[in-house]
Specification:
By secondary structure, this protein is an alpha+beta fold. It contains 3 helices and 9 strands.
Amino acid sequence: MLRWFDILRFAHYSNPEPPRRLEQAEEAWAAQLTPAQFRVMRGKATEPPYRNAYCRTYESGIYACVGCGSWLFDSSTKYHAISGWPSFTQPYAKNAMKYSLDASHHMQRIEAQCNVCDAHLGHVFPDGPVPSGLRYCMNSESLLQVTSENS
């Protein structure tokens, strides 16, 4: 189980090795993604709170990266954080994401990116529920839920 100390260590020193890598030109990403997905995933924008696909859904399944299909979260770690965005307590695997310091918007935050394709996913905060205390606050535009019906 990852804890805040682990996230800080990754952001400051060295992220876990990705299971694979996917790199392509920004033009290819623009052709593959919707304009909203491109704004969030490649431009590091944030979608509006509460008006996004996965804020209020809790079906069983896996949440994958829209860009590369890498598994990011299991639905069992999703919880209602009242933040306006889908929130999770743990990634699917330790190396599913990479972390970096983000000082934009006059805040100190930890950005979470897909470790395979570098897509911006959202941010991680140390105010989640026990036992990990983590809150992965993600953008729905970066996620694709894969359920048993569509897997």
